[in-house]
Amino acid sequence: MVTDPDATPEHYELAYDEARRALDAQESVVNELRTRAGVLIAAAAITTSFFGGRALSDGDVATAGWIAITCFGVVGASVLAVLWPRTDWTFTVNAQRFIGTYVESEDGPLPLPAIHRDLALHMSASYVTNARQLRALTMAFRIGAIFLVGEVVAWVVG
Predict the structure, then answer these.
(1) Cβ(84)–Cβ(140) below 8 Å
(2) DSSP label of 90
(3) Which end of the chain has fewer beta carbons closer than 10 Å to its terminal beta carbon, N or C?
(4) What's the predicted TM-score (pTM) here?
């Protein structure tokens, strides 16, 4: 472990606290995005049932109707991408691994500043990995929102 000789235990504790806060905020963003995705699919379903029922009442599907139906499918797929359960998020530390590595190691427990430093670095790496996944889900949500607007426009035109 390479440490700065001028770093105090408080420096490492602050780094740990900030890394923990960043992961907590990131987890909150993921949960908020999933909530918004649920609202997005509800809006698409209401739009389709309201406008689609009127546009398709005569049994003939015009080009605008097919565009709207396609847009609804894209919205559904994008929401599914956001809501699909994932196991590759990392927001917490495995307690068993923590104890084995930091508390009950062969050399005895590590000093608390060293634990704070190491955990801060691990949480920072988790943040970066999670951020890549979150960017992809955010893009899927944006695509869904754009196609919802396209669906509404297509139903109104139809």
Answers:
(1) no
(2) -
(3) N
(4) 0.82
